[in-house]
Amino acid sequence: MFRKPKQLTVIDFFCGAGGFSEGFRQQGFKIVKGIDFWQPAIDTHNLNHGLNDTTKDVLDFWGKNSADVEEIEKLEDTEFLIGSPSCVSFSMSNKSGKGDKTLGIKLIKAYLRVIVVKKHQNETVLKGWYMENVPKSRDFIREKYTFEQLNLAKWAEKIGCKKTDIALKIQGEILNAGDYGAPQERKRFIAGEWIKTGEFISPTIIQTKHKTVSEVRSRMPKTTEKKNSKKKFADPNYQNIKLEASEITDHFYDTGVYKIEWEKAEFLKTNHPFMGKMSFPENENRTSRTIMATRSASTREAIIYKSEYNRSGDGEYRLPTIREVASLMGFPYVYQFVGSEGTKWRQIGNSVCPHQSISLAKALRKKMGLKKVPDDKIHFFQLKENYKKIKNLNTFEEKKFNSLRKRLKNTRFRRHAIKLGNMTVDLMNYHPEKKNEVAQNWYVVAFFGTGDGYGVKIFSSQEKEDLANVLKGTSLHFDEYKKIISSLPVNVSSLQEVYEQDLHLKQESNPILLLKNLSQIISSYKCHKEVVSGKGILQKDNIPIAQLMSAYGLLSLLNN
User: Fold this and answer.
1) Strand-pair partners of 532
2) Do the beta carbons of residue 257 and residue 319 sit within 8 Å?
3) Contact assessment for residue 368 and residue 40, using Cβ atoms and an 8 Å cutoff
4) 100-111: pLDDT as tens digits
5) Predicted model pTM
6) Of 209, 281, 379, 395, most Cβ neighbours within 10 A?
7) Residues 394-433: pLDDT tens digits?
8) Taking all residues of the chain, what is their mean pLDDT, rounded to a whole number?
9) C-alpha dihedral (143, 145, 146, 150), degrees to nearest 10
10) What is the number of alpha carbons within 13 Å of residue 101 lying toward its C-beta?
11) What would the pLDDT profile of 161-216 be if each residue is shown by its tens digit?
């Protein structure tokens, strides 16, 4: 016999930092348990939801055999189950979406197994459930699961069902958290069920025009705010929260990055060899891109802002603070995160947007005939003093840039000056077909076409004159271009050494700066986008003049 709960209670599986839980909490649900195997996540969830849970692996609920539901039966009976299985194996960032999905599928099935047992047990109190994951996961989730497929064949017999009977039907939609008030483009597959009717309860879209980064950051205090400031700052997402700087955590510290890091991010965003162009720094008039779980400063996915400190080079640009990414995710100022900066970022990046969770909780309340909790009635009193219980990253000081890591000996180099005409011409310190031989020779290599059959052309020094002859027959002022190229400072014998040691990008002979300089030179000629015949130099007709200029320029630099 199972006692019906008196409150709208919830267990959060794969709870992480608790974004899913927080949305339900704000709508009057009581979070009675969070389940996660990562200690920092459990610590954060416990702190914000007043719990004392310990780590636990959701795979424990899979059972030793198809009759074993002991671990599931230990769970409190609640009216709702929510869960966000680990999405790493389904993410497109995991080996371009080709990573092993085995663990991800097993985690999903373990969670669904819990739902089935709670749903089919005698006098169940379960009213509904939701599951959140990346859109790609939808391709690996069945529309129907039998008891047998969820390791419940023998248990099914005990409750009078056949192992081949349908135990659970999966319905859902791909939803964008930005449609529900989150200041972020975050598409996720949301599945769920209202047990009584078997239907998926879809939330109501409230935000046809998504919030922009500027709408959030412009309402936040500057990271350079003084510690003793007595001004009150309203939370950009929750206007009934107003705090002094001393009460706002993880925001007043310098997240500036070294030039060598942000310059690489700039290159990958604006001049990636085969992907589209992105803004650098971030375009704050648009909604935030998806917050990833990994904090990075030198990748295409990095989120980069102009620093409030008046600096050039090192520290000119910065990463978001932890409080900024938390606000862009939709967490309130009073929600705290346990751990180091990287640990906090990972927790936030792995979370469900509270705004998305709020919309789902509101949909369930509506289904039950209950009014939603209005924004001005949402309470945060139980969270207000938690800022005193965590390691606060605030220093209220400017960062000193004196701990840059050195490049490893024989670090690889590959970069192009310009991307145009579905091709690039790269300067490389390794042979494209002999990748283990690094920093022994420098090569000029053209990459053209897309997909597995892309073309590769390694230029020889003798082809410099062939390129010159082609360029002389174009509208390019070749003699002028040749003179400019010959004036560029380069010493091939020290090219690798300069690349490894000039970490502040101050030497003109640094290959990074040489390529940037070459790009500017080529782009300054109006004819650079014109298309000409390669005359057999490349296995490709209609070559942009810019690419021939790039090949000639790089060969000239290597053979001066």
Assistant:
1) 543
2) yes
3) no
4) 578 889 999 999
5) 0.91
6) 281
7) 999 999 999 888 899 999 999 999 999 889 999 999 999 8
8) 93
9) 170
10) 16
11) 999 999 999 999 999 999 999 999 999 999 999 999 999 999 999 988 999 999 99
Lowest mean pLDDT among 15-19, 347-351, 437-441: 437-441
Q: Map out the domains of the chain as residue ranges.
A: 9-209+351-385, 414-558
d(CA 388, CA 399): 24
Q: Of 42-46, 299-303, 340-344, 538-542, give the lowest mean pLDDT range.
A: 538-542
Orientation of helix 511-523 relative to helix 478-486, angle to 10° = 160
The residues, ordered by sequence, that sit 6+ positions from 497 with a Cβ below 8 Å of its Cβ are none
Give the tokens for residue 31. 């979070």
Q: What is the mean pLDDT of residues 275-285?
A: 94
Compute CA 443 distance to the chain's CA centroid, rounded to the nearest angstrom.
34
Spatial distance between the Cα atoms of 362 and 27, rounded to a whole number of angstroms: 7
Interatomic CA distance for residues 391 and 341, integer angstroms:
10
DSSP annotation of 288? B
Cα atoms found within 13 Å of the Cα of residue 395, Cβ hemisphere only: 9
Interatomic CA distance for residues 429 and 431, integer angstroms: 7
| Dist CA 147 CA 165 (whole Å) | 6
Q: Which residue has the tokens 């400072």?
A: 489
Token pair recorded at residue 528: 């650079």
Question: Given this model, what pLDDT does residue 445 score?
Answer: 96
From the centroid of its chain, how far is CA 170? 27
Strand, helix or coil at 426?
Answer: strand
Residue 333 near residue 243, CB atoms below 8 Å: yes
- How far apart (Å, rounded) are the C-alpha atoms in residues 448 and 273? 10
Residue 46 CB neighbours (<10 A): 17
CB-side neighbour CA atoms (13 Å) of 39: 2
Query: Span 333-351, mean pLDDT?
Result: 98
Beta bridge partners of 431: 434
Q: To the nearest 10°, the Cα dihedral for 281, 286, 288, 290?
A: -100
Q: Residue 395 contacts by C-beta under 8 Å, 6 or more apart in sequence?
A: 252, 253, 254
* pLDDT score at 275: 86
- In CATH terms, the superfamily for domain 9-209+351-385 is Vaccinia Virus protein VP39 (3.40.50.150)
Structure tokens at 435: 């990748």
**Torsion-angle region of 238 (φ positive above 0: left; ψ -120 to 50: alpha; else: beta):** beta
Alpha-carbon gap, residue 296 to 289, rounded angstroms? 14
Mean pLDDT of 450-471: 86
Q: Rg of the Cα trace of the chain? A: 28
Q: Where are the alpha helices (DSSP H) in 473-544?
A: 478-486, 495-501, 511-523
Helices (H) and strands (E) in the chain, counts: 15, 18
